[in-house]
Predict the 3D structure of the following.
Amino acid sequence: MGTLWQDVRYGLRMLGRSPGFTAVAVLTLALGIGANLALFGILNEMVLRPKPVARPQELWAVVPANAARQPVYANLCRPYYEAIRRDGRVFQGIIGYAGIMPKLRTEEGAERIEAELVSGEYFSFLGVVPALGRGFLPEEDGQAGARAVAVISHAFWCSQFGGTPDVLGKTVTLNNTLVEIVGVAPKGFTGLGYGRPSLWLPASMEPMLGELTVYQLIGRLAEPRLAPTAADMLTPIAAEVTQELSTFKDPRWSKYGVGPSFCRVRLDPIGRGVLGTSRARPKVLGFLQFAGVATVLLLLIACANVASLFLARALQRRKETATRIALGATRAALVRQVVCEGILVAAGGTAGALLVFSWVGQGLMKFASWWPGPPLRPAADLRVLLFAAAAVLAVGVGFSLLPALQATALAPAAALKDGAGAGRRRSWLRHGLIVAQVAGSLVLLCGATLCLRSMSKQLSVDLGYRSDRLAVASLDLERVGFTTDTAMPQLEEIVRRVALVPGVERVAVSPVDLMGGMKTHLYVADGVEDHNPSHENSVEFGFYPRVGPGMFGVLGIPILRGRDFSQEDVESGRQIVIVNESFARKFWPGRDPLGMHIRQWEVVGVVQDACLDRFDERADATAFRVTDKKSLLQPNLLIRAQGDARGVVASVRAELARIHPKLVVGDVRTLRDIIKNTLAVEHAALRILGALGVLALVLASVGVYGVMAYMVSSRTREIGIRLAVGATRGDLLRLVLSAGLRLGLIAAALGLPLALGGAVVLRHQIAGISPFDPVSFLAVVACVLAALTAACWLPARRAAKIDPMAALRHE
Amino acid sequence: MIQLKDLEKCYETRAGKNYVLRQINLDIEEGEFITIMGPSGAGKTTLLNILGMLDGGWEGEYYLFDHAVHDLKPKERMALNKQYIGFVFQNFNLLDTLTVYENLDVPLSYRNIKGSERASTVCDTLDRFGIVGKKDLFPGQLSGGQQQLVGVARAVIANPKLLLADEPTGNLHSTQGEAIMDLFKKLNREGTTIVQVTHNDKYAAYSKRIIRLKDGWMVKE
Ligand SMILES: Nc1ncnc2c1ncn2[C@@H]1O[C@H](COP(=O)(O)OP(=O)(O)O)[C@@H](O)[C@H]1O
Ligand SMILES: [Mg+2]
């Protein structure tokens, strides 16, 4: 213990004596450790931190899955909840909740807020005690005796009611229903998902609110290891419910259906992290995976960088080391001393990283522009501190051990006499460290290039219409005080005025969200005239979006037969649809679709296939229904520009703001930007890998510069001799450049297989190109070699300028 | 072969101009063997470096064959060095990280010679200097005399017309020194012009002409 303390004190003194060196080392490590710590912080929030509920480790989500146990989309509506609850063998209790976005009446109009419909025992099940008032009563969950009551969140209480205790008994108006506030949730409780609901309502209010719901079912398992068998016990129960629903034609069934691939359930732990079983989970995990690879590489590069600093310094201290050996120090003691300094530097870097940890985490999350939840702010807790401590040890020992071993491997007599000798043997570590840095940056840059190429490849697919000339603004007329009856004239006015904006060619309104994942609500394709499904139990899906008149014209999707919808169709509420080619081909092969019926709707037109929902999928069978007036309260304004859509965005935004400042929800965006946004993981990965890759390359180039400069200065005499025996300046330039490039080529030889391996691991995130895309790899290698040549250029010039006389005199 | 006319060299120091060579006038015929002598600091090394084109900042005229060296650019001077001149140093100046074989190959590598020809030249030279057995050793593994042998071999491997040797025996025992001087004599007989610097009168006697320098001036015998 005493010697350890002595090591620490001596280490601090040595570090204090060279503040510049210490500062550079600490900052470099702070950079590497900071990125990893921040990422771990995000991971901690997403999947590790226990939720503020009773015994979170017992909570399991019931997730619909296919035969391969992969999660699939299916709505486990109330009958499933009731069946599982009735069974009672598996769970000690079960709750269901569904996120909804009801309209809250405000002074100006109405605003959509986040809320959750929950089963009655929600609060008691979770062990959450309201800060004020009560949770829900059993009778409030009954199907029949539905009462309009709500528990509001702490944040909502503070923002809407100023946090006053007399809030109980007050009412809010949701979707025209008066709801009484009976409780306030405790501070910090935001439900089980990543959203931040403003209030919780009993599930029995679902019909009253008329919202679309997708329930999550959460049960409490006393024994976590029972999860796999419990899932097997639940599967037949769910199958039975599915069977019943489809036999009795429950209205909810025709509305949502469940996918044909839904054949079993699985149980996923849900007690930790905000991510839960959210549909964003694969995206988030994919993102964290990418970012993790990148930040670990960055840390390795930072370590290699600091290790070369340590090595250079340790070699400078060879005389001191030799003296110590002569005085009887063991090699172990000397190594321990250097490693101790390494740990001190790592601790400094980690302390710096902890200071900016939350801020860097938020910065990293900015890359994940598609994150659907509210801004995530990683906070330090015990897990983060443990991670930091582990980082200090691993990094501190990791980067200082090799330099320590090498610097202490010397014959004291030789070292005492002079510093030189054995040059060839000592340079391998120095060069190895540089090679590692260059290889690391090569891997990062390869990743970035792959993402870039993958993105541009995907963006250039044919959508069936020109995406570059389109812009979209989502409007909310209800929020600014319009109703179904008054909205139509206002919409016509908006369309007229936006069409007059210079550069705008055509404008239409339509409820459909382009590239917006509309297929969350696929419908069972039943009632299709003259269509006999191939076998009895097959369930076929159609995609039934509502669209406004003129939408196809604005998008430039040709109408192949029949006609488009007109404003008059909307006004009169006529029951008509337009189908796309795929629909016609799938259900009525070889027949004329015009005049056919889907349920009560008559087909009046056929349009060419186009990708409206996702840019990377073939168009599905789609029947476009004419919009009703209600859907036009929150329409999308589709704008086609005469040229590039980016040119009109600003003026359209200004014109809409003149009509009403709160008319637009979000922002006016080009369709290209929206598509880019759906490529979020690639985009985020591209930016992270790109930014870190460039950073790493800069670090590595500085390292190469250092090594080459050192090489030139330590080989001045040799260069003089070479000049004396006939070398030209060009020969010397070549000598240094080729030494640098040799390092680069070795790095490429090591880095390329690594990059290829990484690409294979992450191949699911890369679409459109092969993970072995040669263009990406060659471009990066060329770029890295160019950077190295630049880094070697100055030392090479210096070598070429050496005066042979001075060099030879210098001994 | 060489003609120096009023050659002067000075260094700018804080105290003003410090002349190292003054009004040097010297003719050297092809095939001569010349010794330069003089006390330390007299300018011997400086003169040798100027003859060998390693030093550029001087005044006066210097003709090597029919090249007016004083009118040439540094690059062209280095080309002359490559073509005509070989150097032997007092402290050998072998490259520590290269073997004897590789050290001999270095001058050839700068002279546009084919690989096979280079290899045979190096082998011939190793043979001629009797150091074949040492070819895979590093300089640090040789005695001083053996190192200088390699130094001389390296200096003549590209067939220079002029061999410049700056105190080649300064770091050697007398027996080793005599061996080197015998070698010089043999090379001179074979046609190489040699200019050497030495402090040793015995070794100076190997040459046919002695030039004495003092404080940068040539002094008469
Ligand atoms: N780079 C330099 N700057 C200033 N003076 C120099 C320089 N190089 C050599 N000298 C001076 O030139 C003089 C001649 O040096 P040198 O030719 O090496 O003498 P020597 O005859 O011993 O070989 C010496 O006085 C030395 O101090
Ligand atoms: Mg001298």
User: Anything to note?
Assistant: The longest strand of chain B covers residues 16-28.
